[in-house]
Amino acid sequence: MASERAAAGFQLGFHAIGDEANTIALNAFTAAEQVATPRPSAQPVQDHPYQIVEGPVALFDPRSVRLRIEHAQVLLPGDFDRFAALGVIASMQPSHLLDDMNWAAARLGAERSRYAYAWRSMLDHHITLAFGTDYPVESINPFRGLYAAITRKNEAGTATFHPEQCLSITEAIYAYTQASAYAEFRETVKGRLEPGFLADFIVLDRDLLKATPEEILHTKVLRTVVGGKTVYTAR
Question: Which one of 19, 93, 147, 152 is separated from 173 by 20 to 30 angstroms, measured CA to CA?
């Protein structure tokens, strides 16, 4: 079925959470890529002066068919390399960790937990990591996700889940913006603040690059602009 849809020109996105589900999805994508027709797209410039990424970043392939797995929360160790080799996008929602960390370790066990919500391992394997909120399952508030991505702590700050998988704030912002635009073939018009891009942006009450994780968690939106027009102003 995946091959049939890929041959028809669809960009496939599978929902997979557990390690076996992700393996099944990667198996299907392996077959699908043999018959898929890549879509042409401009490649983002990685050394652009507006770039804020630190450390390893995804290796964007403009010829990719950009197959995607939603959630990708638990992987087998060998599947990180398969993700990268196939160019599969990991579309993940960091805020899930804030709730799941209460039970994930008990259900997964110590060894499998090492490869759960493994954002650092994703980037280290040069996997495109695209973040979202998973609203309405989770809160639409992206600042909870930023907090989760850079701390891997619960909101009370009393528990941590595999902190070695933390991201920097710039890496997390990149995943929410430029990488997510790339995941939908829109990286030439969305995800960046620069001339020629859509005038969709928000004004915040603090600088996320200077704020503490706790301050980020309580960030407020002062203004929302869509298509160059203000559609929300805080009172």
Answer: 19
Give the separation between CA 3 and CA 37, rounded to whole angstroms: 11
**Going by DSSP bridges, is the β-strand pair 68-71/89-92 parallel, antiparallel, or unpaired?**
parallel
Q: Which two tokens stand for residue 97?
A: 């960790």
Q: pTM of the full predicted structure?
A: 0.89
Residue 153 φ/ψ region, left for φ over 0, alpha for ψ in the -120 to 50 degree band, beta for the rest: beta
Question: What does each C-alpha distance from 32 to 9, 71, 182, 200 come to in angstroms?
Answer: 11, 20, 20, 34
DSSP state of 201: E
Residue-wise pLDDT tens digits, 25-82: 999 999 998 888 776 554 444 444 444 444 444 445 545 789 999 999 999 999 999 9
Written as six digits, the tokens of 104 are 């994930």
Return the structure tokens found at 110.
Answer: 């110590």
Q: Which domains does the chain have, with CATH numbers?
A: 2-192 (3.20.20.140), 199-235 (no CATH)
Best CA proximity match to 162, nearest among 172, 152, 147, 150: 152
- Per-residue b or e along 112-124, where b marks 16 or more CB atoms closer than 10 Å to that residue's CB: bbebbbbbbbbbe
Residue 77's SS3 state is coil
Tokens 């829109």 locate to 186
